[in-house]
Write a structure and sequence with these properties.
Elements: H1 5-25, H2 34-53, H3 56-62, E1 63-71, E2 75-78, H4 79-90, E3 97-103, E4 109-115, E5 118-134, E6 140-154, E7 157-169, H5 173-179, H6 184-194, E8 198-205, E9 208-219, E10 222-223, E11 230-231, H7 236-249, H8 279-283, H9 315-329, H10 333-345, E12 389-390, H11 392-403, H12 410-417, E13 421-424, E14 427-429, E15 434-439, E16 442-451, E17 454-461, E18 466-472, H13 481-501
Parallel strand pairs: 1-7
Antiparallel strand pairs: 1-2, 3-5, 4-5, 5-6, 6-7, 8-9, 8-18, 9-10, 11-12, 13-14, 14-15, 15-16, 16-17, 17-18
Helix pairs in contact: 2-3, 7-10
């Protein structure tokens, strides 16, 4: 079929305008935002109800009067022509032919559109697959395509104003889905589409690190090696937690002893809540501290509530614990972690401070979502909550040691896995680890990390001795999590997604 070149010109102009608007002021919506959920509900009505069941009324209700449809194989249609073609074409005889659309997980991007600070629309970008069913034949794959939708908010009602459908391919989506992450070329292409410079994956099976995969580039033209060094942000906290819990297991430290006996921060020296702080309260994020004191207008540390009464994530709590440990043992956290974690497990490529030992030729530079590099954080003193430098292999060794409770007494290991505090439905904090409860005794331990140019995550399943590690070096690297969880953890991956998105 001859392709309409006028359409292509218009499409590129429109996409260029939209992308320009996005780049100069509007960030992508997160999956938990109200706007994201609203647009996804409209998408569901349009396709799951309208397209997949040939309910034409859904389209009539959701399309603006001046709706236009741009298709790279069938030119341009206005509202009247689009509805006519739908009724008499794809939906002409549902009993003998039916098409079904499926949205590709993790492909959706949604950007808000404002005029003088008032929300007036949203851009939705994504990829979908189409399947075809003919009378007497099983459903077969048809094609994949990318799409861009412009949704407008008029009189408090969201309607679809423009729809662009392009980059149609007839490669089987089933084979594409199964080979993603197992096919290097396909994975590299997928990363570029998602604008993720580098991705590290660790797969744990039967309590052992079985696979390490690293994709992408450290910087333009430099391939990320197997032993890439990553800043993993808050994935530092489990290192601090296990260092501490090993001291508890050996009888050298007490989970419930007040920390003021070893350290008192001058900012809270006269606060009566001071004496309530314990290691258990720190590791379960119940200190009452803000995440970081610099977030306070005063820049000083204070209590937002009585320690031990509720959950509030806090890096300051871990730093408080660090100072107490260092005072008692007359060693830095760096020394304690090396003696109790890094050296026994042979984590030879991991450290808590920035020094000359770092092989900069292997360091994953961190980026914002526009491709601008951040300056690396160069800690000269260990931070108990942040900025661990490590590799997928090293962190995989660490998580395997956690799964196998190396160096932990049974009581401490059980406490670590216990529901110490509820954070949301079916989600808890144990000692230093988040806990996702699947029911029937099945659960996952987890932690995430997020800093400028860092998005990292892991899950380990103590019952089945499985695990998955994900390191990325870009602000919005979280957008690849869902595909990875589903690919490597299957049904359990879906359970994790369901708990997180409730």
């Amino acid at each position: 079929m001859k392709i309409n070149h006028t359409f292509f010109q218009l499409k590129f102009i429109l996409v260029g305008i939209l992308l320009f608007q996005i780049q100069i002021g509007f960030s992508q919506e997160t999956e938990n935002s109200a706007l994201y959920k609203t647009i996804m509900s409209k998408d569901s009505l349009l396709f799951n109800v309208g397209f997949n069941t040939c309910n034409i009324k859904q389209f009539e209700d959701l399309l603006t009067d001046d709706f236009e449809f741009f298709h790279d194989k069938d030119s341009i249609s206005d509202r009247t022509r689009f509805l006519h073609n739908l009724k008499n074409g794809l939906c002409g005889s549902p009993a003998t032919y039916q098409s079904r659309r499926e949205l590709v997980d993790g492909s959706t991007e949604i950007y808000p559109m404002y005029k003088k600070g008032v929300l007036y629309g949203a851009i939705q970008i994504g990829t979908h697959r189409f399947y075809e069913t003919s009378a007497g034949k099983p459903e077969q794959f048809g094609s994949t395509a990318k799409f861009t939708h412009v949704w407008l908010l008029k009189n408090k009602v969201w309607k679809l104003s423009r729809s662009l459908s392009y980059d149609h391919e007839t490669v089987s989506s089933a084979s594409t889905k199964s080979s993603l992450f197992d096919n290097d070329d396909l994975t590299e292409k997928w990363l570029k589409e998602n604008k993720v410079p580098a991705l590290g994956i660790g797969i744990i099976t039967d309590g052992k690190l079985k696979q390490v995969k690293v994709f992408g580039e450290l910087k333009k033209g430099v391939t990320a090696p197997y032993n890439t060094i990553w800043n993993v942000a808050s994935l530092t906290k489990p290192i601090t937690a296990i260092t501490t819990l090993k001291l508890v297991s050996s009888g050298k430290w007490d989970l419930d002893e007040p920390l003021y006996k070893y350290w008192t921060d001058p900012d809270i020296a006269n606060d009566p809540y001071l004496k309530l702080l314990t290691t258990r309260i720190v590791l379960t994020h119940q200190t009452g501290f803000p995440n970081w004191r610099f977030l306070n207008e005063s820049g000083k540390l204070d209590f937002k509530f009585k320690p031990g009464t509720k959950y509030q994530y806090s890096g300051e709590g871990f730093e408080y614990l660090r100072k107490a440990l260092e005072k008692k043992f007359h060693k830095t956290l760096e020394q304690l972690a090396a003696e109790l974690v890094f050296e026994p497990i042979k984590m030879n490529d991991s450290q808590l401070v920035w020094n000359d030992k770092i092989d900069l030729s292997r360091y994953a530079i961190n980026y914002d979502n526009k491709g601008n590099a951040y300056e690396p954080t160069k800690n000269k003193t260990a931070n108990a909550a942040d900025d661990l430098l490590t590799t997928i292999e090293d962190y995989g060794k660490f998580l395997c040691s956690v799964l196998n409770s190396d160096g932990l007494s049974k009581k401490v290991f059980d406490d670590m896995n216990a529901h110490q505090i509820t954070t949301k439905k079916d989600k808890y904090f144990g000692l230093g680890f988040e806990i996702y409860d699947f029911g029937n005794g099945e659960y996952a331990l987890s932690h995430g990390g997020a800093d400028k140019g860092v998005q990292t995550l892991f899950f380990i399943l103590p019952k089945t001795k499985q695990g998955l590690i994900i390191f990325t070096n870009v602000d919005d690297g979280y957008k690849v999590y869902k595909d990875l969880l589903l690919h490597y953890l299957g049904e359990n991956g879906q359970k994790l997604i369901d708990i997180e998105t409730k």
